[in-house]
């Protein structure tokens, strides 16, 4: 793993700004990975061994994802909407898991650790560089009973909502009085009043089949040498 300052710089670049949340998130990820014995989480040999549960959608969440390399699309990043500044790091090989919580004391003690720095955010940022892990965090050893349908890998479970016809993956369907339903149909959704629409250029496509696919693939590989085409 790179050192803290290098990770803070690259994380801030990816996040869009340097903020106290980046410092907390980078340190949380470094500590979490160390505790579960995955010191190089973004390396090919370790990337599939790590799951991270992030409990808030705030600045620190981006830093944790950046340092650990976990991704929503790979199912290695789980978002649990608790509004708590905490994350859990799980080693899938050993089943070791630790939940790390950022303390409120750390906020209160920012002026003690960086008294010479003006401005609240700058002071916090500097203080979070200087504080020991023991002040910045509380750590819990936890057991994580993970279901096979929550793991990364191919998806084996599909159900069809008997009300709207939508396919529901990974056992997220619900059973209501013997009826298989998607969650929006069963419990209501984050949106309201869904109306199917048509629009003027609805027959637009991104690639009008002008080029043969092989040539297109070669061009892609030239532009993105790192790209692995599945
Ligand atoms: Zn931020
Ligand atoms: Zn439905």
Structure explained in plain terms:
- Strand 8 (174-176) and strand 9 (179-181) form a beta hairpin.
- The longest helix is centred in the first third of the chain and has 16 residues, at 20-35.
- With 230 residues, this protein is an alpha+beta fold.
- Helix content is 36%, strand content 16%.
- Helix 1 (4-15) packs across helix 4 (59-68), helix 2 packs across helix 4 and helix 2 (20-35) packs parallel to helix 7 (120-130).
- One zinc ion binds at residues 15, 17, 19, 21-22, 59.
Oligomer: single chain
What is the mean pLDDT? 94
Choose one word for the global shape: globular
Task: Determine the N-to-C terminus distance.
Answer: 27 Å
Number of strands: 9
CATH domain class name of the largest domain: Alpha Beta
Low-confidence stretches: none
> Percent of residues in helical segments?
25-40%
State the secondary-structure class: alpha+beta
What would you report as the Rg, rounded to the nearest angstrom?
Answer: 22 Å
Order of helices and strands: HHHEHEEEHHHHEEEEEHH
What brief labels describe this structure?
60s Ribosomal Protein L30, Chain: A; five-stranded mixed beta sheet; globular; binds zinc ion; alpha+beta; 10 helices; 16% strand; 230 residues; Wheat Germ Agglutinin (Isolectin 2), domain 1; single chain
Q: What order do the helices and strands come in, and which of them pair?
A:
Blueprint: H1 4-15, H2 20-35, H3 44-47, E1 50-54, H4 59-68, E2 77-79, E3 86-91, E4 97-102, H5 104-108, H6 110-113, H7 120-130, H8 133-136, E5 137-141, E6 158-160, E7 167-169, E8 174-176, E9 179-181, H9 183-187, H10 213-223
Parallel strand pairs: 1-2
Antiparallel strand pairs: 1-3, 3-4, 4-5, 6-7, 8-9
Helix pairs in contact: 1-2, 1-4, 2-4, 2-7
The structure holds zinc ion (2 copies).
């Amino acid at each position: 793993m790179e050192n803290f300052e290098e990770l803070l710089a690259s994380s801030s670049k990816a996040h869009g700004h340097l903020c106290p949340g980046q410092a907390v998130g980078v340190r949380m990820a470094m500590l979490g990975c160390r505790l579960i014995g995955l010191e190089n989480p973004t390396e090919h040999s370790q990337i599939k061994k790590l799951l991270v549960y992030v409990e808030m959608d705030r600045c620190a969440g981006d830093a944790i994802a950046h340092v650990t390399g976990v991704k929503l699309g790979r199912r290695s990043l789980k978002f649990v909407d608790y509004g708590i500044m905490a994350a859990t790091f799980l080693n899938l090989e050993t089943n070791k898991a630790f939940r790390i919580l950022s303390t409120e004391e750390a906020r209160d003690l920012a002026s003690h650790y960086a008294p010479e720095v003006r401005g609240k955010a700058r002071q916090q940022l500097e203080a979070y560089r200087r504080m020991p892990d023991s002040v910045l965090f509380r750590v819990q050893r936890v057991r994580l009973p993970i279901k096979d349908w929550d793991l990364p890998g191919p998806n084996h479970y599909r159900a069809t909502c008997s009300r709207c016809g939508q396919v529901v993956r990974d056992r997220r369907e619900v059973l209501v009085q013997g009826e298989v339903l998607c969650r929006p149909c069963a419990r209501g959704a984050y949106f309201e009043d869904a109306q199917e629409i048509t629009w003027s250029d609805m027959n637009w496509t991104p690639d009008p089949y002008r080029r043969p696919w092989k040539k297109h693939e070669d061009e892609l590989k030239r532009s993105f040498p790192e790209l692995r085409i599945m």
